[in-house]
From TrEMBL:
The UvrABC repair system catalyzes the recognition and processing of DNA lesions. UvrC both incises the 5' and 3' sides of the lesion. The N-terminal half is responsible for the 3' incision and the C-terminal half is responsible for the 5' incision. GO terms for biological process: nucleotide-excision repair; SOS response. Gene3D superfamilies: 5' to 3' exonuclease, C-terminal subdomain, GIY-YIG endonuclease, UvrC, RNAse H endonuclease domain. It comes from Winogradskyella eximia. Residues 15-93 form the GIY-YIG domain. This is UvrABC system protein C. InterPro entries: GIY-YIG_endonuc (IPR000305), GIY-YIG_endonuc_sf (IPR035901), GIY-YIG_UvrC_Cho (IPR047296), RuvA_2-like (IPR010994), UVR_dom_sf (IPR036876), UvrABC_protein_C (IPR050066), UvrC (IPR004791), UvrC_RNase_H_dom (IPR001162). Residues 262-476 form the UvrC family homology region profile domain.
Length: 597
């Protein structure tokens, strides 16, 4: 049989680093990937069985492969990232952030203006940023305005025009916000010195400005110009106050990027902190939507490349929580302790809070969407034929065989439905037999639902392993419900999920929302069952002896317990004390019972 075009393409791929592109039959780009060895990586897609469904679908849809060879792994990362952003292939990670960010521009002109902008124009001007918040930009510009007197007009302040007297000073000059460069009241050298200082502040370096202001303040004081010295002192205080607020790490940690990742089965959140001169000058979290069960390592590599490009970072060192392959140009540090570890922990905390806020926003704005997402995820994770909108979980409780009970808790759309919770006292089983007890309560629960024509759940969860699951299945068989309701058992120790007629358990990702909901169901069933069991034991222990007294009914026992709290105190009470609570006749019966001698 002749080889297909695709097979020939794969065989002729090079053993070089680069980027590979998969196209479907309609020549649409459906996936972009990077590799140290293009041939080895591409061949792996076709040489092994893929457990994840979307990967199998991707492989089926590949009609042709193209590749681009590059010099280094770093080049491959950059190229992969640019192709994903440009073409947004169907099976690639989705970068959920395409808004424009504000920058601070130092305009390329004589007497440069400093202003905020969202448009980066390649005209030789300097751009600092982008900043993730306009509030940060306004704070920085407010600081600069308070420290340095810069022009805000957009005049062409060429030497010839100033000398010809074309411009007149404006209100800003009279307010003291500008020194009047337009009429030649300020030299270009003086103005440029301020721009150099501003450039350093925007980089996070306050040291030079602080030093310069201290020199100026001393000079004014020595010349008896105390008002001018006081103005400089106020500027110093503003700058020191801003620096104190922004410096939260070791000042020795400079020009470093910090990255961390928090992920679940659908999304990943990558936080970025940029450090300069001991200060965090930027924080940003990027949301990525998974497509092919990408690992945290793959996602972090992609996000680091994207974020460093987007924020124009030139840092030579990065801190990350685990090893990543980003080429040889970057120093990758995995902090273990001290200030470096603290800053990495801060980044992780930022990513976690971002994820929590996202979920809260979805719950508030569109609770149905949140529930729909979880239900769809549970259906896929648990291999169900329909979404488990109605789930019931059973748990047995008995201590040394006494007062055996069982609990059934109900979740609807992923949330507890407490009005539907039910407790069962075991009636047909003698002694501590969890298997027989499970068989009894499952039978009683669904027999009653069927008799009352109540809706049945889409999923039953049994707290226990194969034994309890088999017992529950017997009841479903008797009721003719086998195959009509999905049922699984969860073993306590390793969180194994057992299915009927399948000896191999399913293990869910520990970070999976599906597993968290199953654990919540199991824990709720355990709590509810234990609570009922304790109530039964307490009632039995406290009232058994009193119930043995002839002529003493339930209400008398309740009244006595409210007053005396324990059976022992009732037995030791004086006759008049008992009479005050339950009257002469019943008090005599209780007193005589405890004082027969």
């Amino acid at each position: 049989m002749p080889e297909s075009t695709l097979e020939i393409q794969i065989k002729t791929l090079p053993h070089q680093p680069g980027v590979y592109q998969y196209f479907d039959a309609d020549e649409r780009l459906i996936y972009v990937g990077k590799a140290k060895d293009i041939k080895k990586r591409v061949s792996s897609y076709f040489n092994k069985h893929h457990d994840y469904g979307k990967t199998r679908v991707l492989v089926k849809n590949i009609a042709s492969v193209k590749h681009i060879v590059v010099e280094t792994e770093n080049d491959a990362l950059l190229l992969e990232n640019n192709l994903i952003k440009k073409y947004k292939p169907k099976y690639n990670v989705l970068l959920k952030d395409d808004k424009s960010y504000p920058w601070i521009c130092i305009k390329k002109e004589r007497f440069p203006r400093v202003f905020p902008t969202r448009r980066v124009i390649k005209d030789g001007s300097e751009y600092f940023g982008p900043y993730t918040s306009m509030k940060t930009v306004k704070t920085l510009l407010g600081l600069i305005k308070g420290l340095y007197q810069l022009r805000t007009c957009n005049y062409d302040l060429s030497e010839s025009k100033i000398e010809s007297g074309k411009y007149k000073v404006c209100l800003e000059y009279h307010l003291g916000n500008c020194l009047g460069a337009c009429e030649g009241y300020e030299t270009e050298e003086e103005y440029q010195a301020n721009i150099i200082a501003i450039r350093e502040i925007l980089k996070g370096n306050f040291k030079d400005s602080l030093q310069q202001f201290k020199i100026q303040m001393r000079q004014h004081a020595e010349a008896m110009q105390f008002e001018d010295a006081q103005k400089i002192k106020e500027k110093l205080e503003v700058l020191e106050n801003y620096q104190a607020k922004s410096t939260i790490v070791n000042p020795k940690i400079s020009n470093v990027d910090v990255f961390s990742i928090v992920s679940d089965e659908t999304y990943a959140y990558v936080n970025f902190l940029q450090l300069s001169y001991g200060s965090i000058i930027r924080s940003h979290t990027l949301e990525l939507k998974k497509k092919l069960q990408e690992s945290d390592s793959e996602l972090l590599e992609l996000a680091i490349t994207e974020i460093r490009q987007r924020f124009n970072s030139n840092s030579k060192e990065i801190y990350v929580p685990f090893k990543v392959n980003l080429g040889n140009d970057l120093k990758v540090t995995i902090p273990k302790l001290g200030d470096k570890k603290s800053i990495l922990d801060l980044s992780i905390r930022n990513a976690k809070y971002f994820r929590m806020d996202k979920f809260k926003q979805v719950k508030l704005v569109d609770p149905d969407r949140h529930a729909n997402r979880i239900m769809a995820q549970m259906k896929a994770d648990l291999r169900l034929s329909e979404e488990p909108r109605h789930i019931e979980c059973f748990d047995n409780s008995n201590i040394q065989g006494t007062n055996p009970v069982a609990a059934c808790v109900v979740f609807k759309n992923g949330k507890p439905s407490k009005k539907d919770y039910r407790n069962f006292n075991i009636k047909t089983v003698e002694g501590p037999d969890d298997f027989a007890s499970m068989e009894e309560v499952v039978y009683r629960r669904y027999k009653r639902l069927m008799e009352e024509d109540q809706p049945l759940p889409q999923l039953i969860i049994i707290d226990g392993g194969k034994g309890q699951l088999s017992s529950a299945l017997k009841s479903l068989d008797l009721l003719g419900l086998r195959g009509k309701i999905a049922i699984i058992g969860i073993a306590k120790r390793l969180e194994e999920l057992f299915y009927p007629d399948d000896p191999i358990p399913l293990y869910l990702d520990k970070k999976s929302e599906t597993l968290k909901i199953i654990q919540q169901l199991r824990n709720e069933a355990h709590r509810f069952g234990i609570e009922h069991h304790r109530n039964r034991r307490s009632k039995g222990a406290l009232t058994t002896e009193l119930e043995n007294i002839p002529g003493v009914g339930e209400q008398t026992i309740v009244d006595l317990m409210k007053q005396f709290k324990t059976v022992k105190r009732i037995g030791n009470a004086k006759l008049d004390e008992l009479e005050a609570v339950v009257g002469v006749s019943r008090a005599n019966k209780v007193y005589n019972y405890y004082h027969k001698e």
